[in-house]
Amino acid sequence: MSKFPKNFFWGGATSAIQIEGAYKEDGKGLSGSDCKTAGSFAKRRELTYIDQNGKPGTIPSNLGGTLPKGAKLAALDGYFYPSHEAIDFYHTYKEDIALFAEMGFKMFRMSISWPRIYPRGDENAPNQKGIDFYKNVFNELHKYGIEPLVTIFHGDLPLYLENTYGGWTDRRLIDYYMKFAETCLREFKGLVKYWLPFNEMNDYLLMLDMFGNISTKKTHQKSFQIIHNLLVANARTVALAHEIDPENKVGSMICGIPNYPATCDPADILETRYRWEKGIYYTGDAQVFGEYPVFAKRLWNEYEVSLETQPEDFEDLQKGKVDFYTFSYYMSNLVTTHEVKDIVQGNFANGARNPYLNYSQWGWSYDPKGLRYYLEAIYDRYHLPMIITENGLGARDTLTDGKIHDDYRIEYLKDHLHECKVAIEHGVDLIGYTMWGCIDLVSASTGEMSKRYGFIYVDRDDEGKGTNQRIRKDSFYWYKEVIESNGEML
Ligand code: BG6
User: Fold this and answer.
1) Across the strands, what pairs with 349?
2) Residue 77 placed within a domain
3) Whole-number Å distance between alpha carbons of 66 and 279
4) How far apart are CA 460 and CA 85, in angstroms?
5) Interval 77-96: pLDDT, tens
6) Residue 490 lies in a domain
7) Which of 164, 162, 142 lies closest to 61, judged by CA?
8) Would you call 418 helix, strand, or coil by DSSP?
9) Domains held by the chain: number
10) Of 40, 205, 436, 439, which is best to mutate to test ligand 1, by the most ligand atoms within 8 angstroms of its C-beta?
11) pLDDT digits over 87-135, tens only?
């Protein structure tokens, strides 16, 4: 019978911008994401700005959004920004970690807010209060024997860097990031051993297909350049982490969306392979093998991209190969070269509707077997230990008599964990599973609170109203048993 390995890292995952709140407290600066309004499935999130004449405005918060010349992102009066208070983890971390410990967590994935450490991003010295906060959180986790898994950057670029340099297209961001990363690696040495320099850098390439109709030559150039800069920063972080503490283990974090061909037309088969290459392997190969894959040239030609690089970049890539591979898994994607009427978009997937799958209210497919497929395909390619750093079901929960009966979530997790078990039996070295949004948090795509993932309910609505009280859902007790039995009860 297949088993989860001893010392398997059972746990949960979050990101700073989606839980911390306290957006201006103790010296924290704003991030670009602090200028993101709330949305819903039907209404996209927007970024607010002030133009060069001081006039406010908004743009879509995705690849299609381009700021008018001279405009700067800004948080404005009269708008609701969910990240400003989020679920207030900055003040409730002790209570929340105690709940994680009650479930028996062995690992907790969280990220560090860059503007909490460097409020503008270009200071000489870090903000001590920000450092203290994270030290307290890590100590609190260790008190319960919970291993922190730390994403250094999960989408919250200091607003000053965003406005001054236009984000990651500018190479100078690599140096600012390295300063931030080095501070984290030195300050939290001994407290953190497992690091992920970046969250889902492949999203920039997945978005090219999502927003195919609005992506232009300029967006292609931008996306590939951003990824190059991120890959260089990633590799330098890996090398530095190993130098600072040989105990450190550094991993990739890829948005894992397996692609299936919609038909057996060879053109579909080929297109599906190319989707894997562009969306999944391009960033994964560079992080694991320390060099761009052979097909990178084809992609650069196809997209008419000319990368701005330095000779040392390629040496850095070689010197900074990751120690383990992590990924998020929510859904699979159906690829075809034929015309399709029924397109489904969810997270960073964009393809034909798969008649064999069900879809959530937000258009995300429910495909546990896809998780096994992804695990086996990736392990076969890289032979590195793997952690599923995000997986879960975003759903609306109903509070009845102080309880949440979320059997649908239990079902979802049970189905996905079953496939993990099979993959392990087939030889995959899966060492951990951190369920996404283990405590309800602000949805990244929609900004809603009502798209809930957690084992722990947070009493807060889409407008930021509520008591913030934490309530254990049925899935909380279920996950506790899963961990207690090391997955035997699944
Ligand atoms: C992942 C992101 O892609 O998807 C998370 O890393 C995000 O930050 C998660 O929250 C789920 O997406 P959403 O839109 O439901 O919050």
Assistant:
1) 346
2) no
3) 23
4) 10
5) 999 999 999 999 999 999 99
6) no
7) 162
8) helix
9) 1
10) 436
11) 999 999 999 999 999 999 999 999 999 999 999 999 999 999 999 999 9
Distance CA 463, CA 474 (A): 25
Question: Could you give the residue numbers annotated as active site?
Answer: 200, 390
Give nearest CA residue, ligand 1 atom 14: 445
CA distances from 72 to 33, 54, 208 (A): 13, 10, 25
CATH of residue 418: 3.20.20.80
Kindly report the protein residue whose alpha carbon is nearest to atom 5 of ligand 1.
Answer: 444
Structure tokens belonging to residue 447: 């900004």
Query: Model confidence over 188-220: pLDDT tens digits?
Result: 999 999 999 999 999 999 988 876 656 788 889
Residue 434 beta carbon below 6 angstroms from any ligand 1 atom: no
CA dihedral for 320, 322, 328, 334, sign (positive or negative): positive
H/E stretch holding 151 reads strand 147-153
> Does 252 contact ligand 1 (Cβ within 6 A)?
no
pLDDT at 1 over 60: no
Separation of CA 444 and ligand 1 centre (Å): 5
Atom of ligand 1 nearest to the CA of 362: 15
Task: Tell me if 58 is assigned to some domain.
Answer: no
The answer to whether the CB of 445 is under 6 A from ligand 1 is yes
**Does the CB atom of residue 148 touch ligand 1 within 6 A?**
no
Q: How would DSSP label each residue in 44-108?
A: --EEEEE-TTS-EEEEESSTT--PPTT-EE---TT---GGGTTT-HHHHHHHHHHHHHHHT-SEE
Nearest CA to ligand 1 atom 1: 328
Residue 133 lies in a domain: yes
Distance from chain centroid for Cα 455 = 19
Q: 439 φ, ψ to 5°?
A: -120, 140
The parent domain of residue 406 ranges over: 9-28+85-484
Task: Tell whether ligand 1 has an atom less than 6 A from the beta carbon of residue 16.
Answer: no
